[in-house]
Amino acid sequence: MKWDFKTPGIPDNFFVKGAPITKEEVRVITLSKARIKENSIIYDVGAGTGSISIEAALLARNGKVFSIEKNPERISLIKKNIKKFGVSNIEVVEGEAPEVLRALPRADRIIIGGSGGRIRRILKKCDGKLNDNGVVVINAVKLDTLRDSTSTLQKLSYNFRVTQVHINKFDGIAKALSTIFIIDAEKR
Amino acid sequence: MKWDFKTPGIPDNFFVKGAPITKEEVRVITLSKARIKENSIIYDVGAGTGSISIEAALLARNGKVFSIEKNPERISLIKKNIKKFGVSNIEVVEGEAPEVLRALPRADRIIIGGSGGRIRRILKKCDGKLNDNGVVVINAVKLDTLRDSTSTLQKLSYNFRVTQVHINKFDGIAKALSTIFIIDAEKR
Amino acid sequence: MKWDFKTPGIPDNFFVKGAPITKEEVRVITLSKARIKENSIIYDVGAGTGSISIEAALLARNGKVFSIEKNPERISLIKKNIKKFGVSNIEVVEGEAPEVLRALPRADRIIIGGSGGRIRRILKKCDGKLNDNGVVVINAVKLDTLRDSTSTLQKLSYNFRVTQVHINKFDGIAKALSTIFIIDAEKR
Amino acid sequence: MKWDFKTPGIPDNFFVKGAPITKEEVRVITLSKARIKENSIIYDVGAGTGSISIEAALLARNGKVFSIEKNPERISLIKKNIKKFGVSNIEVVEGEAPEVLRALPRADRIIIGGSGGRIRRILKKCDGKLNDNGVVVINAVKLDTLRDSTSTLQKLSYNFRVTQVHINKFDGIAKALSTIFIIDAEKR
């Protein structure tokens, strides 16, 4: 499958599934907040299904995406999706953040979809790896993650904004799909 | 100003203002549903500030955007924003849909942000101008527009989906920014 | 179990379950829009679990609630809940609206939680049974029900308002519980 | 004016205005979470327009409401609303929480609508004044208030839940009215 469009937002059901997926509408806002350039070096922390990694890789055609995931089944799923969409600029990093970040090259953009309750340590480590004017985007579905993210970003003297996104889909009955807090921050 | 990023979602406050603007988060979902290609011919009906036109033109670099607006002040505003972002593939069409659509070349994508209560007539006219496999996206903030859009699309035998988007911004106190129904449909 | 409080909003998990339940937060807004008096005669159309009926009966202590439900399992469930909460002013009406409404005394308040796609016919019949200054409240989870309710109320020359309610619960991860349109209308 | 109904939810525009008001839909959920009894002793901290105080007083007919507000204009407004609704069981307490709480009798229910950034100190003081099995309900419109409330309640070993409420009203165009976090907690 080839995604022929210049707009992100690959429909959820185009991906091989088996792990939580960042819903397409949340995904496009997340990518938008990350402000991806053609040559951006990007980390996708807690990559899950790989949907963010694949869209990021399609946008950063001359850049590279490091897709970080510890769960073996999800790693296999990400690889299937990479193959399905024919993307060549993703490197799957098997292991857990923040530990595995050490060995990676510096990043321009860091997107954190899953943090396993370690968001404070991850953000501090990311700060050390992020280039100047770099951008971090966190997708939080727990109040704890929201709280720990914002307090850590404050300590790191990052500017940040919090945007909450709700999506309802009307296919017959109304379905509340997603409730998520998106925190985006710049390294000054 | 040059928008250097591959991701849409130019911040609202980057635009010269003076008319209602499609908020950046709603804008990126709207553009995503429109599935824009590099060479797409696009109508932006009820262009307002021109934010959708400008982002669409940046995505469809080898295509063209027809930015349709009847209000003289808004037309002037759109032109200011075109100049500000240095975009060359937008043609501002002064007048009201559906009448002014007659003279335009056929379109691949039609985005309707404002319909002035004439959404049924606009959609019927658009159907005649839309290429096969073309996509229509409507942003509705009134239940009347939602109802009239979906009933007209049903009559035209279009597939369509309804997505409702809510955005809260947390800058000090919570601010509910936007509530909008986005209807996207394909011409079969 | 006795509900000792003057405020409605019995927690969902206090009810014997087995059918869709109007969530407690949506229930209190629905009851509020119905403006129940101590001696109100109330229909609960499509009573489901009976949660609306039971709260309405507790508020209208000198009035009466007709709890209308066609599904035998749900009828049994409603009866269990009536017993559990020790309420004596509910009459369970077995059958389908609008047909079964014919035999009932006139009503002051009509709450429609389920309409099985027959909302237009139900509203017309309800109009004939509703006392002057009576109130109708409809809970719609489908755009079709919303559209048909509002167009029928317009034809009947009722004043009405549409309120959409979203509830997120944060128990660990954010959970979008309910998305519902509540239409309330007065008979003039 | 007499509120003749057993259901809370007095329409916003029935109140004399001049200060922020807890919107009627948010108000009924807030009161519901407070689980008011006929004889409850209630604090309304940061009473604003007095809408919560008045509805609480109508529900707790044999109880009493202490309406705490420091702003002289708002105090005057609360008194106008008390007069308008003919309620006799409200005592307006002029001053700021937590200081003014010292002189008050113990409470069964405490509703905190405004905390002026002092929510931690207020909650600690409230803990000392709240009877066993008492309930605290906080309406938070800032993430800071949400965070400080939940962390303080955790320290106090209270059970608590967080419910977020969004209300859209459709009167012509969609209007996103309210976004609020309601935290309710029991003293064990």
Give a short synopsis of this structure.
Four copies of one chain form a homotetramer. Chain A is of the alpha/beta class and 188 residues long.
Can you characterise this structure?
Four copies of one chain form a homotetramer. Chain A has 188 residues and is α/β, with parallel strands linked by helices. Chain A is built from five helices and seven strands. In chain A, helix 4 runs parallel beside helix 5. The longest helix of chain A is centred in the middle third of the chain and has 14 residues. The model of chain A has no long low-confidence stretch (mean pLDDT 96). Chains in contact: A-B, A-C, A-D, B-C, B-D, C-D. Chains A and C meet through strand 6 and strand 7 of A and strand 6 and strand 7 of C. Strand 6 of chain C pairs antiparallel with strand 6 of chain D, so a sheet runs across the interface.
Question: Biggest β-sheet of chain A: count, sense, barrel?
Answer: 7 strands, mixed
Task: Give the chain pair forming the largest contact, with residue counts.
Answer: A-B, 31 and 31 residues
Estimate the strand proportion of chain A: 25-35%
Q: What is the straight-line distance between the termini of chain A?
A: 39 Å
Helix share bin of chain A? 25-40%
Give the H and E element order of chain A: HEHEHEEHEHEE
- How does the overall form of chain A come out from the CA principal axes? globular
Number of strands of chain A: 7
User: Low-confidence parts of chain A lasting 5 or more residues at pLDDT below 50?
Assistant: none
- Total helices of chain A: the number is 5
Oligomer: homotetramer
**Which sequence of strands runs across the widest sheet of chain A?**
3-2-1-4-5-7-6
Mean pLDDT of chain A: 96
Structural class category of chain A: alpha/beta
Rg calc of chain A: 15 Å
